[in-house]
Amino acid sequence: MGQLVHTKGEAVAVKVVEAPSQYLTFALGGEMFAVGILNVKEIIEYGNLTEIPMMPDFIRGVINLRGSVVPVIDLSARFGGKSAELGRRTCIVIVEVTDEEMRHDIGIMVDAVSEVLDIPGSEIEPPPTFGARIRADFIFGMGKVAGKFVIILNINMVLSIEEIAQLTGTEDGVAAANIATS
Fold first, then answer.
1. Fewest beta carbons less than 10 Å away: which of 19, 22, 72, 122?
2. CATH at residue 116
3. Which residues are within 8 A (CB) of 105 and not within 5 positions of it... i.e. 6 or more apart?
4. Is 163 inside any structural domain?
5. Based on the structure, what is the number of domains in the chain?
């Protein structure tokens, strides 16, 4: 999308970057979160996880997704809480994150997937500067839906390959999962 900006009598087209309007919502620790639907590749049943020794608590393990090794991140543990309890609706959302020019598939473990919602940009507030139970840079914004807030995650920050690599002591967080299964 674009808009026209008038400068000294001239109309100049300016590209306006907008947030996606559709979000996949999911429950995690009693709260509702959302990620942009364009980041979501698929949702799969929780299971067939291979644990990796000596990894941080938030890396639950890896799964074989059609021949590819995909690390699975426990979002509850990633947000600094305790590891999530497995329930009958626990599932893995496969999301695509970008790191420089590379794209990586990473699974995130959630308590339950809810629905896809349209949240217009006008209904998204900036992230709170304090009081959130997760880091402020993990939050893209607070979406207002039916009088309640949905925490919209900045998935590229939550699943930062560089930061995960630092926390795991490897050069590449995704490579850590690949090495463990080799």
1. 122
2. 2.40.50.180
3. 41, 65, 68, 70, 94, 95, 96
4. yes
5. 1
Residues 6+ apart with CB under 8 A from 88: none
- Backbone phi and psi for residue 119, each to the nearest 5 degrees, phi listed first: -125, 105
Instruction: With respect to residue 16, please indicate whether it lies within any of the assigned structural domains.
Output: no
Residue ranges in the chain modelled with pLDDT below 50: 1-7, 9, 11-17, 173, 176-182
Does 8 fall in a domain?
no
Q: What is the pLDDT of residues 2-50, one digit of tens each?
A: 444 444 545 444 444 455 589 999 999 889 999 999 999 999 999 889 9
**pTM of the predicted model over 0.70:** yes
Q: Residue 36's domain spans which residues?
A: 21-181
Instruction: Output the CA–CA distances (angstroms, integers) from residue 1 to 20, 120, 124, 140, in the order listed.
Output: 12, 14, 18, 20
Could you list the beta-strand ranges (E) of the chain.
2-7, 10-15, 22-28, 31-36, 40-45, 59-65, 68-74, 91-99, 102-110, 112-118, 124-125, 139-145, 148-153
Say which amino acid occupies 134.
I
